[in-house]
Amino acid sequence: xxxxxxxxxxxxxxxxxxxxxxxxxxxxxxxxxxxxxxxxxxxxxxxxxxxxxxxxxxxxxxxxxxxxxxxxxxxxxxxxxxxxxxxxxxxxxxxxxxxxxxxxxxxxxxxxxxxxxxxxxxxxxxxxxxxxxxxxxxxxxxxxxxxxxxxxxxxxxxxxxxxxxxxxxxxxxxxxxxxxxxxxxxxxxxxxxxxxxxxxxxxxxxxxxxxxxxxxxxxxxxxxxxxxxxxxxxxxxxxxxxxxxxxxxxxxxxxxxxxxxxxxxxxxxxxxxxxxxxxxxxxxxxxxxxxxxxxxxxxxxxxxxxxxxxxxxxxxxxxxxxxxxxxxxxxxxxxxxxxxxxxxxxxxxxxxxxxxxxxxxxxxxxxxxxxxxxxxxxxxxxxxxxxxxxxxxxxxxxxxxxxxxxxx
Length: 408
Prior knowledge:
It contains twelve helices and eleven strands. It has helices at residues 34-50, 56-69, 84-107, 112-136, 151-171, 183-218, 232-271, 273-276, 278-318, 334-350, 356-368, 379-386, and strands at 24-30, 71-73, 76-80, 138-140, 143-147, 219-221, 224-225, 227-228, 321-322, 326-330, 371-375. The strands form two sheets. A nine-stranded antiparallel β-sheet has the order 7-6-5-4-3-2-1-11-10. The protein has a two-stranded antiparallel sheet with strand order 8-9. A hairpin with a 2-residue loop joins strand 6 (219-221) and strand 7. Helix 1 (34-50) packs across helix 11. The longest helix has 41 residues, at 278-318.
C-alpha cells in the first residue's frame, strides 16, 4: 500500500497549528506482572526445548501478545492480532536460509560469496516484511497500525552495511595453502582489515540514523505518519559519549581488579609460597589476577554501558519522533534503569535464571512508563475517521506471508 492511499489530514476546528487548543497528553502504563509472565515463559521454554525450537514462533506470539495487551496508551491497551502459523512459516524460511548458508560455508567454501550475495539480496526485503507484519498486527482503539516504508528505501538503507563484507571479498589477498606465507601479503591483509573496520566504526552513527529514520519514518496510525527529525550529528555525539563511558567503565574495572588482585597475590605469597615457591606462587596469582580483571570488565561493561545506551538512545529517538498531530516524549533516566538492571542480574544469578521473566517485566515497565504522547485535537474523532471503510489504514499485506519478527 502506498502512502497516497491515506486520506489527507483534515484539521478540525481548534486543532490546527496555531489554534488555541491545549494538547492532550496520553501516558503509557504497563500492567504486566512477573508471576503472570513466569507461567507463560516457563511453558514457552519447555515446549521450545521439546520441539527442538519449532515452537519458537508460537512462543514469540504469546510473549508479544502478553506485553502488548498489558501496554496501556491513554488507558486503552494495545491489541495483537498476528497469526502464529504465519510467523511459523517465516521462521522456517529463516531457518532454511541459515542452514543453507552454514552448509555452503563449511562444505563448499569456494561458493561462500554466493551465499553472502543471496543474503544481501533477501535481507532488506525480509526486514521490511518483518516491520510490516509487526505493525499491521498491532492495534489501538480498534485501529491497526501500519508500516509504510517502501522496498527501495529498505535496500538503500541497508546497502552500506554490506560494503565491509564486499570490501573483504574484493580486496583481501588470497593466501596460499602452503606453510610459507608472504609476509607482505599478511601485512596487506591486516591493513585492509584495519582500514575497513575503522571506516565502519567511523560511519556507524551515520548508518544508525539511516536505519532509524527508515523505521520511525514508516510508522503510521490513522492518517498520521511519523517522522524522525534528528540529524546524524546527535548520533555522533551519543557515539562519543558512549565511548567515554566505556573507557571510564574499563578504567574502573581495572582499578578494582588491580586492588583485588594485589590482595590475592599478597595472600597467595604468604600461604602458597612454601608449597610452590615464591616465584611460582606469584606467577600463579598473576594469571588469576589477569583472569579476574578480564572477567570483572566483562561483567561490569554491559551492566553500566547497556543501561546508559538504552536510556540515551530511547530519549533521542522518541523525543524526535512526531507526526502532524502526535509528538512522542521520553524521559528515561540512566539511574533508575541502572538500578533495575543491577538488581535484575543479581537476582537472575541467585535464582539460576528463574528470575528472568520477572526481570523482563521490571525492565519493560521502566522503559515504557518513561514514554508519553502529546496529541493535538480530539483523539476519538480522528480515530473514528480511521475506522471508516475504504480509508486504507490496515497497512500493506505483503509482509503478511512471511510473518517475520526479528525484533528490529
